[in-house]
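look at this record:
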Amino acid sequence: MNTSIKSSGKYEILYVIGIIAISFSSIFVRWSDAEVSVIAMYRLYLTNLLMLPLLWKYRKEMFRLTGKQWGLLLFSGLMLALHLLLWMASLRLTTVASSTVILTLEPIIVMFGSFFLFGASINRGMIVGIGLALIGSIAIGSGDFTMSGKAATGDLLSMLGTVAIAVHVLAGKQLLSHLSAFVYNFWVFGIAGTALALYNVFNGFAFTGYSSREWGIFLLLAVVPTLFGHYLFNWLMKVISASAVSMAVLGEPVFASLLAWVLLKESLSALQLWAGALILCGVWIFIRYGKEAPSPKPKKLLATGRKGEVRQ
């Protein structure tokens, strides 16, 4: 379904809930003392555990997938795992403000990728938006480097994590044209969680022995930013435009920075404020004056069920 932002008024409440939900992710990660790969693994596994009661309803669709769909699910899941690993690691090295503001480059990367994958047009407004956002991102990195080399490394990890989540979104955009949000999320969360589990085994990280406080944080991550954040946004991509959904990331640094100021006592430097504003301005220009990428055309290799049927 291809609708404009203006026609999606009835989804505004869910949209705002999703923005606030994902903004809590950085706070919960900073509260935990566990390895970031362990945090991410249990975040995803616990989310799937919470989804189990609905599994019976989608039992027929769960395994009625083509080989290409399985391949895209595997790729999308691996990109999600890489994003969580890199971005969560960045939160241990840089501020919440820097890490989350860099994430606002996601819609730019998604739409730029859509140019090559789906034939989207690129106009002058897009180029201006990209330029401003990149300048702001570089400014944040250089500002952190003058304070700490670790902070600059954290910014780099956040940037790489942003690229990974953008690739994950592009893969999901194609799959969600043919799969229900539940099936897509369940398999992608499971694949990403398993990839992280293998990473933890390889590195010798403990799977048990965590305090009740840590388990509580893992559960909060599963419920708040994953179910009410990522899952919700993936579902919204089926009822409102992809551009509208991608714009949600613009609100994350605002709420996350405020939460970090209140809950973590993090201060905001003048450089972070100005660079963050520049990134937000660039991304807004890019989305406001850019043409939305056309929806990927259904392919027989991806379709499930009867010919011409698109599952919702």
